[in-house]
Design brief:
- It is a single chain.
- About 30% of the residues lie in helices and about 30% in strands.
- By secondary structure, it is α+β, with helices and mostly antiparallel strands.
- It has one domain: Glutamine Phosphoribosylpyrophosphate, subunit 1, domain 1 (4-Layer Sandwich).
- The strands form two sheets. Strands 3-2-4-1-10-9-11 form a seven-stranded antiparallel β-sheet. A six-stranded antiparallel β-sheet has the order 5-6-7-8-12-13, covered by helices on one side.
- Strand 7 and strand 8 form a beta hairpin.
- Helix 3 runs parallel beside helix 5, helix 3 packs across helix 6 and helix 5 crosses helix 6.
- The longest helix has 19 residues.
- The protein is globular and about 60 Å long.
Length: about 280
Amino acid sequence: MCRLLGVMCNNPDRLGCFLYSKRDVYRPDTESLFDGYGMGYYNDFRALIFKKPLNKIRLDRSCFDIARDVKSETLIVHIRIAETGHFKIENTHPFRFRNFIFAHIGSIYNFFNIDTKLYFKLPDFLMRNIQGETDSELFFHLILSELYRSGELDNLEIKGDALVNSVIRAIKIVEDISGNQDSKRSSFTSILSNGEYMIGVAYKEPLYLGSFTSIQDCALCAKKTKGTDTDIIAEQHKNFRAVSLVGGTVEGLMDNEKPLPDRSITLITRDLKIKTVEI
């Protein structure tokens, strides 16, 4: 059951083809009940998000169905099972702050006993920015807070390592406040992007990393009339490159989609280079 997806690719026009080729894998369990879905992506380097809250209903939609019209080099899709916070748009993922997009699966253990302490770790302007009641949104703002404290939040040329280090420090804050035993029960599995980088956190809930070097036999484009455009599209399929992050207990993954080590962070660059470090 795919509940979290991140994709970075080299051709936004063929993102839909890639999602279509994975539509039977990158999808939620049709028998489960969900509380919303959403997506975030970039258009002309500007972060855009779409959210749809639900009230415990089955969702027969793949990630392709959710994002089929998106043309972007970076995409995040989230399918929500509410563990903290009611079903409403403010609690639906992904969350956005300026050019940062964030989505999270799992939960911070014992959250409602420590949320106030976590909240007061934030600077005032980030406190005021929180709109919902979820642990996910607060965790996102702890990451933003660490970027702010290190002087990187306003840095338009921020490096990937600065993002990684801020995520690690945010996790450490939650661990210190929740205590050693409780922190081991928390999931921080999440995806963060600023358009230049994508960060995948594997922590308790599984997260898979995939690398793709072409699109084979695109059934979506096979329906098009043959002609000059068909040859161009075929060449684009051949040259397509993508890296994916898939969160949840997912069946049907390919051999090139491997589980990331627990308690690790993976950094993906716009040129699709990958680096994984332990937390």
